[in-house]
Structures are given as structure tokens and as C-alpha cells.
Amino acid sequence: MRKKHLIAMGALVLTSSAALAGLVTITPVSVTLNPDASGTALGSMSAARFSKNEVEYIGCGVRRITTGTGIVVFGFCQANTAAGVLGFCESEDPALIASIGDQDDFSFITFSWDSAGVCRSIGNSTQSFYIPAK
Amino acid sequence: MRTLIILSVLQTVGIAALVVHAFAAKHSIDPEQRPLSSSIAQPTSGAVPHVGEERLRAIIREELARLQSTAQVNASPAAAPSPRNPAIDADRREAVAQQIEIYRGVGAITDAQMQELQVEIAQLDVAGRKEMMSKLMRALNSGEIKGRL
């Protein structure tokens, strides 16, 4: 009877080890503000979403607005650190706007902006290690 | 069993009657009443009872060309961008600038207000849009206006 219990416990331990397999990287949101009002922001969507605080976020989006002269399309990115440091940028550059469409739920996002708040870069990396552990 | 046979015979007779009726109707339709749309089906010379395939194709092409040109004429006013009025653009830019100043004074902007502001900014000319977007971004980045895009 005791032997059976030991075997069952061993199996349980091995199974739970298998469930934890795979690299997990938690990258909290970070925002750097420069004296000339330019800046950079980075962080993974999952780290922000599942952080222990209620302020952290990062992401990008696209707005399409009809006007009298056509449709204005602009992309934007925004981030907020756990400490409440904010970073925003916007862009009407089609290539940068297109890159926003490549982002996914588990993307690691980076963006930077110039002193006017115009996005200079928008990047993303979608990796298995950004998916939070169960 | 007998009832089934009777029903089966009646059904067969009925189908046969329908087929005969349909066949007769098909051949009795006057060429002028064939189910073609009025603008396409009308032959140019009313005296010709049967329209040849080539002639039909030509008529369809003509009608399509006519419809296409009509559609273009109708679409033109809506598609053409209205010319910008510098005075109106300046007024709009001023209004947006004031709006941003108000939010800066309040220190916050709600999601709905942000949405509204972005729509207003989008109506500006390119230069005005850049200027006002920049004003908004700098206010957000400096924390003078708390809100989200």
C-alpha cells in the first residue's frame, strides 16, 4: 500500500514538472523620457496585463476617421509603467501603421518618439516565452 | 395497396400535365414579352422578332457602358474632395488648440473626450493636424493631461 502511494506521488511530481516546461520571460513595461521630450517605451503585453498592479499597460492601435477630404489614418502607441510613467506617440506613416497590424496578444512591444510626440519606431516580437506560465 | 397505386397514377398524370403546360407556355411567349429587362431587351428595330446573340451582346455592352458613365457622373461630386478653406482651417485649429488647453487645465481627458478630440484633429489640414497631434502628445507625455489614446 505504501509502495503504491510512493509511485503515485512520483508520477504526480513528474507530471507537474512537465507542465512547467518552457522558458517564460516577464518583461514589465518600461518608459524612458528624455529631456527634449522624446522617449522610448517597451514591455510585453502579457507582463503588463498580468502584472500585480492596476496601472501598467502597453499597446498600439489604429484610427481611421472620415473627413471632408477623405479618410485620415493614424497609428498610435501608449504605455504606462507600474510607477505611472507614461509614454505616447502617434504617426501617419503607412509603414509604421502597417507594423501595428503585426502585433499579437503575446507581443513584446517597443516604440520610440521624437520631441514632437511623433513615433520614430514601432516594433514587436512575438515569442513563446512571452506567454505567461499557467 | 390499391389506394397507393391510384395516388401514384394521379401523381404521374399531374406531373405529365405540368410538363405539357410548361412546354406549351414556353413556346407561346411573344418575343416582345420575353423576360429580359426593358432597357436591354428592346430591339432597335421592332420588326425583328428574334434577336441574334451578337446583337444581344452589342446591346448589353452599350447598356453597360451607359450605366457605367452614369454611375461615374453620379459618383463624381461625392468622391471629389471638397477644396479646403484656409480661414475655416485656421478657425478649426484654434478651436482644437483651445480644447487641448481646457483638458490641460482640467488635467485629464476621458476616453470619449479623447475620441472626440481625435475626430476634430482629423478634420484639420495636414499642417494643423501635425501641430495639434504634437500638442496633444506632448501634453500626454509630460503628464499635463492624464488619459489614453
Radius of gyration of chain B over all CA atoms, rounded: 35 Å
How many helical elements of chain B?
6
Task: Please state roughly what percent of the residues of chain A sit in beta strands, choosing from under 5%, 5-15%, 15-25%, 25-35%, 35-45% or over 45%.
Answer: 35-45%
Order of helices and strands of chain B: HHHHHH
User: Could you report the average pLDDT of chain A, rounded to the nearest whole number?
Assistant: 89
The biggest sheet of chain A amounts to:
4 strands, antiparallel
Q: Tally the helices of chain A: what do you get? A: 3
Q: What is the overall shape of chain B?
A: elongated
Number of distinct beta strands of chain B:
0
Strand content of chain B: under 5%
**Structural class estimated from helices and strands of chain B:** mainly alpha
Distance between the termini of chain A: 33 Å
- Residues in helix, % of chain B: over 70%
What can you tell me about this protein's structure?
The complex is a heterodimer of chains A (134) and B (149). Helices cover 22% and strands 40% of the residues of chain A. Chain A is of the alpha+beta class and 134 residues long. In chain A, strands 1-2-6-7 form a 4-stranded antiparallel β-sheet. The longest helix of chain A is centred in the first third of the chain and has 18 residues, at 2-19. The two termini of chain A are 33 Å apart. The mean pLDDT of chain A is 89. Chain B is an all-alpha fold and 149 residues long. Among the domains of chain B are: 37-80, no CATH class; 86-141, no CATH class. Chain B has helices at 2-28, 38-41, 53-79, 86-106, 111-122, 126-141. Mean pLDDT of chain B is 73; it is low at 28-49 and 75-79. The A-B interface holds A 33, 37, 39, 61, 63, 65, 67-70, 72, 74, 76, 78, 86-90, 92, 113, 115-118 and B 81-82, 84, 118-119, 122-123, 129-130, 133-134, 136-138, 140-143, 148-149.
